[in-house]
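Memo to structure team: turn this sequence into structure tokens by end of day. - J.P.
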Amino acid sequence: MIAAFIVLHDTTLDELCQKKPKTMRELRQISGMGEKKCEMYGEEILRLFPRFENGERASEQSRAKPPNASLETLELLQQGHSFEEIAQIRGRKVTSVVALVADLIEKGEVGFQQQWMSVGRHQQIREACARVGLEWMKPIKGALPNEVTFDEIRLVLAEMRREKTAQEEVHL
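Reply from structure team:
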């Protein structure tokens, strides 16, 4: 079973509970219920309201407690969600999600994924980090073209810091 907060944002769940849609057309009018979510979960969601109205409630065992932000983000990454999708699901800014992912990379809990940016951009940032150092982002940003974002730098920097830590651990 997947916890509701992984599938739908709290604001979507609130609106569902307030409006109690009875048809797919009504369900599609709920903010956060796009075509894909309606296709995947719509029929099941629509079947829940009559059950609830008849007195059925979730059992204590089926109530999933939200994990911490890192675990939730890691799970969403593993499901193939983009940073933008994770931000929407979790009700956070994309920058906050990237910062959390960078922290996970640096801790070695998730590896850098090439799909997050072009190979050329990745290499460009790595080269700037090698020249300027891994301590501060602002000098790295200054050594790169304007179109390179702090989020991109943050991810590559985390990757390189993790590599450095792993090398240091080997030499101990």
